[in-house]
């Protein structure tokens, strides 16, 4: 079968996207917006790009990609657009993170895996305007893992492997250990392409944590995935 190679034509692509935008296509608004926002030394184009991404994010069906993009934009700031990074605000004042949190929450509610992972990470460490909440962190990691996020699967597995103790009472678990579920999550992460996931699967087979102990299986996976004896 012949392979047809198409030359890269940004202008032609933009024309096609702009036609789609006229029909109210939120994906087209998002892609064109990101293109304009990435324009260097062109503040007018960047402002138009931000407006388009905001329009995509306001779509009734919630464009999760646009919402996540905006969340990161407000977290990190954009000097040319006059958007101050949330990190420059008062770390003890969660209202300084509101532009970030509100958009991240919407993206997470729409099922965006990266948004769920970032919010889970924020809940775990109690940062970026979120209070520390291990249960919420685990829920976000699990949902992101279901959406195909390998790092989230590893993070959820790590929480369940040993459990998470209460910070003021180490003998009491906030998240009880569940090594069988942790193993499943590590394996899921590995199947999604995570080397950390496979390393944890190997460790579980070597120790018998969450799965029947099998040094032979650990050796087989190490050889297959990492070409290690």
Provide a descriptive summary of the structure in words.
This protein has a two-stranded antiparallel ribbon. The longest helix has 15 residues, at 43-57. The protein is mostly helical and 229 residues long. It contains eleven helices and two strands, in the order ααααααααββααα. The protein is globular and about 60 Å long.
Summarize it.
The chain is mainly alpha-helical and 229 residues long.
Walk me through the topology.
Layout: H1 10-22, H2 26-37, H3 43-57, H4 64-76, H5 98-109, H6 113-125, H7 134-146, H8 150-162, E1 164-166, E2 169-175, H9 179-191, H10 195-207, H11 215-226
Antiparallel strand pairs: 1-2
Helix pairs in contact: 1-2, 2-3, 3-4, 4-5, 5-6, 6-7, 7-8, 8-9, 9-10, 10-11
Adjacency order of strands in the biggest sheet: 1-2
Uncertain spans, ≥5 residues at pLDDT below 50? none
Q: Structural class per helix/strand content?
A: mainly alpha
Gyration radius, in Å: 22 Å
**Separation, N- and C-terminal Cα atoms:** 40 Å
DSSP summary, beta strand count: 2
Task: Quickly count the helices.
Answer: 11
Could you list some keywords that capture this structure?
11 helices; 62% helix; single chain; 229 residues; mainly alpha; globular
């Amino acid at each position: 079968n012949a392979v047809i190679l198409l030359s890269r034509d940004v202008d032609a692509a933009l024309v096609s996207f702009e036609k789609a935008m006229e029909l109210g296509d939120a994906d087209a608004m998002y892609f064109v917006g990101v293109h304009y926002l990435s324009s260097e030394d062109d503040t007018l184009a960047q402002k138009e790009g931000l407006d388009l991404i905001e329009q995509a994010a306001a779509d009734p069906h919630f464009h999760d990609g646009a919402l996540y993009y905006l969340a990161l934009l407000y977290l990190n700031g954009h000097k040319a657009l006059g958007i101050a990074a949330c990190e420059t605000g008062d770390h003890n004042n969660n209202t300084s993170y509101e532009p970030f949190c509100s958009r991240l929450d919407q993206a997470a509610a729409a099922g965006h895996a990266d948004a769920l992972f970032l919010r889970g990470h924020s809940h775990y460490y109690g940062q970026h305007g979120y209070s520390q909440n291990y249960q919420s962190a685990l829920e976000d990691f699990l949902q992101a893992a279901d959406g195909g996020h390998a790092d989230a699967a590893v993070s959820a597995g790590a929480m369940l492997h040993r459990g998470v103790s209460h910070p003021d009472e180490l003998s009491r678990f906030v998240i009880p250990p569940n090594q069988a579920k942790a193993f499943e999550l590590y394996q899921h992460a590995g199947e999604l392409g995570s080397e950390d996931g496979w390393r944890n699967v190997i460790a579980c087979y070597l120790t018998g944590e969450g799965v029947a102990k099998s040094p032979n299986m650990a050796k087989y996976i190490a050889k297959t995935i990492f070409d290690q004896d």
